[in-house]
Design goal:
By secondary structure, the chain is of the alpha/beta class. It contains seven helices and 40 strands. The longest helix has 22 residues, at 338-359.
Length: 360
């Protein structure tokens, strides 16, 4: 339970009265009631503020600025959690971000040190910094390093010479191949495989000859990857996911790729080998990248886009193959008119034939 004025300070928000209200939960707009805080940024929800039963609502700063006045800021404040009528408003420059921070505060799961399970298999010369929580049936190969306050779930397999940083959460059935390195605060969800061989073969005229993958994978601090993702080891050097990268479920990242800091990759994306993605990019679902392309910083790749060439920074791209999103929208708009245009062409041809027959 937190006082509303303390929560407002946490998110650098601006209160419109009611700072002493006690908040017990963070809930969605339609489900929120007394003692809850929620958020509303879209017009459809902002129009329902007077009917919201929550004690407080996070809204865009522009909503409360016209309402702010000395009288409203000095209004009496209830000392217990109760529904305000209307609810107390908390202005924020980014309401969704403020809501996310409050969710993290209310639902933070502190590290639980369970030690190393007797049913875990630990190899030789491992370095495990206490406290840790290594669950039953986890397997750690030889010379593995595990940082303090890290959780290794049941069924996790960690290959020889792998390194896991501090404060990581490795969910059940994750596989870390030998030699991969995870930074601090990394989260890997179930079924993800880090460090499998990159896909490299050379045809000798009779069969495919495997190109040995001798590199590794480096995942930097605060990276989170969803379930059933795959990151391939490099042919030489390292496949790198830089600090703060966030990856959804069912994403494949090929060998020798570098994914820039704070880039977000949504589900079912395929990234071929030796691709470079810049910082702060957003890649929507089912997009695909040809090998060796370079994408600049702050690029937005729309859903189902096929990226086949280098993309300059700041671009918004879509289509197959990818091009600037505005151009693709114009092309799609023209494409939708083709059936009607085809009817006009057929009618024109028929009219021409009729005229030719009448002249003859």
């Amino acid at each position: 339970m937190y006082r509303l004025d303390d929560l407002a300070k946490l998110v650098e928000g601006r209160l419109l009265g009611g700072g002493r209200i006690e908040i017990e939960r963070v809930r969605p707009f339609e489900d929120a009631g007394p003692g809850d805080i929620t958020w509303a940024a879209k017009p459809a929800l902002l129009n329902k503020l007077s009917r919201c039963r929550a004690s407080a609502v996070i809204v865009p700063m522009a909503v409360i600025e016209p309402l702010s006045s000395p009288a409203s800021e000095s209004a009496p404040e209830p000392s217990q959690a109760q529904a305000a009528d209307p609810p107390v408003l908390v202005g924020a420059d980014n309401p969704k971000l403020a809501f996310a921070r409050m969710l993290a505060l209310f639902h933070d799961r502190p590290f639980e040190a369970r030690g190393v399970s007797a049913e875990a298999c630990i190899g030789q010369d491992c370095r495990i910094d206490e406290p840790v929580s290594i669950h039953p049936l986890a397997f750690l190969g030889d010379r593995v390093r595990v940082g303090s306050e890290t959780t290794v779930g049941a069924g996790v397999v960690v290959g020889d010479d792998a390194e896991i940083g501090r404060g990581c959460v490795i969910h059940p059935n994750v596989v870390l191949y030998p030699g991969v390195r995870l930074g601090d605060g990394v989260i890997l969800h179930s079924g993800t495989v880090i460090g499998a061989d990159g896909f490299g073969y050379v045809f000798d005229g009779q069969k495919q000859v495997k190109m040995e993958q001798t590199g590794t994978v480096i995942i930097e601090d605060e990276v989170e990857m969803g379930a059933n993702c795959c990151v391939d080891r490099a042919t030489f050097g390292a496949t790198v996911l830089e600090r703060g990268v966030k990856v959804d479920n069912l994403v494949h990242i090929g060998h020798n790729c570098r994914i820039g800091e704070n880039t977000v990759i949504v589900g079912c994306v395929g990234v071929s080998g030796s691709v470079t993605l810049g910082r702060n990019c957003v890649v929507a679902g089912q997009a695909g990248f040809s090998d060796h392309v370079r994408v600049g910083d702050q690029v937005t790749v729309m859903m189902r886009t096929a990226v086949t060439k280098d993309i300059p920074e700041g671009s918004v791209i879509s289509g197959v193959p990818a091009r600037q999103h505005r151009e693709e929208l114009k092309s799609q708009a023209a494409l939708r008119q083709l059936p009607e245009l085809w009817k006009e062409v057929r009618n024109l041809r028929r009219r021409i034939r009729e005229l030719e027959e009448s002249d003859s």
